[in-house]
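Q: what sequence does this backbone want?
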């Protein structure tokens, strides 16, 4: 049996996925296998440090150390291959491959508010991706599995303008009434959490679920609000338009903290339970705009676009479980993280 560990990252070219890949390469000596159809992800040539590539059939072997294998493919098709030929990876690409050790499942139909509300049936395809994934997990039983759920799984009736409530993990209880999550995206993630519990408790699979709140970072796609707002501030937009009233709030957490928390949880849990990843702080979009405009050195008129999708009114995390059980808090402050995003936006604009 090979002593090399192989880790699978589905959706590994998306925002969270590629940051996870980079961290695995920094913190381990293992090999990472990425599957991504690039429907929303970015090809590794645009984000992999010192990119080099050697092709082996359908797979691109990336980097001078050749520790990254990239397959451009719908993840469901990849899992379908396993069903019909379980040893196809060893036959085609990695002769000493036996099984994946850690599996990070980021493959999903994703997007901002416009996607969640504008094409909810497309987003519902996440149900098929996750069903195929957990069927495969329970058959092949990798050593450890990460399932990223979402803060969208929380009941929307706890996220109204009538008093903001810090959402705690126990607000979702599969033994009681679940409440209504946020659109098809929330329903799919809630279903995925349930499948994770089944995989852990009935099939003995070590599974970690996370509920990230509003993750952001310097390399996030401009279809997401944080980098888009930063870019508009860098261009000194005035008036500055905001979807909804702008008073709706979110819990912003930097991607580096998200990855830190994932690694902590992977090392210490595995029973299918879900954990929040957030800052525990509610920040309105108006406050976010004002912060970026302060970086840019101007004070625009903020114009509300009340005909645009705005989502729930308030969504932020109660982080007491993570702090009490694991001693975990995010390291990057809102101001520091957003300044990094703003500086990255300025660099993008200067290169245009």
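A:
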């Amino acid at each position: 049996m090979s002593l090399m560990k192989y880790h699978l990252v589905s959706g590994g070219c998306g925002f969270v996925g590629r940051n996870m890949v980079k961290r695995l390469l920094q913190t381990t000596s293992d090999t990472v296998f990425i599957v991504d159809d690039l429907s929303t992800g970015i090809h590794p040539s645009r984000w992999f440090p010192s990119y080099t590539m050697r092709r082996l059939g359908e797979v691109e072997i990336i980097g001078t150390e050749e520790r990254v294998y990239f397959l451009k493919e719908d993840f469901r098709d990849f899992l379908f291959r396993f069903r019909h030929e379980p040893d196809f990876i060893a036959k085609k690409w990695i002769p000493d491959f036996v099984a994946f050790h850690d599996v990070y499942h980021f493959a999903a139909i994703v997007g901002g508010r416009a996607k969640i509300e504008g094409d909810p049936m497309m987003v519902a395809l996440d149900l098929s991706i996750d069903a195929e994934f957990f069927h495969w997990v329970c058959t092949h039983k990798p050593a450890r599995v990460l399932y990223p759920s979402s803060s969208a799984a929380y009941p929307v009736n706890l996220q109204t303008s009538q008093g903001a409530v810090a959402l705690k993990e126990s607000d979702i209880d599969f033994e009681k009434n679940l409440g209504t999550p946020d659109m098809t995206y929330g329903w799919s993630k809630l279903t995925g959490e349930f499948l994770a519990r089944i995989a852990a408790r009935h099939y003995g699979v070590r599974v970690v679920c996370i509920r990230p709140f509003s993750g952001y970072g310097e390399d996030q796609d401009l279809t997401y609000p944080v980098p888009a707002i930063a870019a508009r501030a860098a261009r000194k937009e005035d008036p500055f338009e905001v979807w909804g009233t702008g008073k709706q709030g979110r819990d912003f957490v930097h991607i580096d903290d998200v990855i830190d928390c994932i690694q902590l949880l992977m090392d210490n849990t595995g029973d299918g339970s879900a954990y929040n990843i957030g800052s525990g702080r509610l920040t309105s979009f108006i406050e976010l705009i004002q912060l970026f405009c302060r970086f840019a050195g101007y004070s625009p008129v903020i114009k509300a676009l009340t005909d645009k999708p705005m989502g729930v009114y308030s969504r932020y995390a109660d982080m007491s479980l993570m702090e009490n059980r694991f001693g975990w808090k995010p390291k990057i402050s809102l101001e520091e993280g957003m300044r990094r995003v703003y500086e990255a936006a300025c660099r993008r604009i200067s290169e245009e």
